[in-house]
Amino acid sequence: MDARLNADAAELAKFSELAHRWWDPDSEFRPLHQINPLRLGWIESLAGPLRGRAVLDVGCGGGILAEAMARQGGDVLGIDLADKPLKVAQLHALEQQVANVRYRAVSAEALADEQPGTFDVVTCMEMLEHVPDPASIVNACARLVKPGGWVMFSTLNRNPKAFLFAIVGAEYVLRLLPRGTHEYRKFIRPSELAGWARQAGLDVRALRGLTYNPLTQRYALASDTSVNYLMATQRGQG
Q: For S-adenosyl-L-methionine, which residues are the binding ones (predicted)?
């Protein structure tokens, strides 16, 4: 792998090994299927309807969010550096006859050099905590979005509660995720993400938490950002 790529080879391999299970709603990716309607509704509540707009999903994996945004009428490009999940995403879109979603194996930084200021909406969900240099991804997303366009992030907070809930609870106790899915040291505080966003020319517009109730086995958007959170940013018009 090109050492200049902002990617962790072990992380790419980890998700590639599970690629064939990406669209199984009862697999290791069940949490992504469960939170997807929440993510999609949140995106459109802030950025507006996606129909007819150019949308980019950075770190799209098997295409769960990218395909959902295409079903809302967006002209969607999903990018990732893991080939197997991309092939799964492409095949699923063909099977479901979702024509307005495309996929490419390209880094966010390379695409930003190639197509700056191209997209109305850029999403980067559950991805920043898996790369060596998340600030570089944030900067690339800012370069990719049009002036006035929206960039949406979601990731994990870094504090003792997040370690307890996201790693001990989710991976070892409740087994919602495979063990080793996350590394605590890669978690990102909202203040850190907001700082990178501002440095890249993005204004923070909204911050929302994503919580899980083990009794009802349901996820919900909430004010509690101590574990999972979503951040909406907007590029200035200038």
A: 39, 59, 80, 125
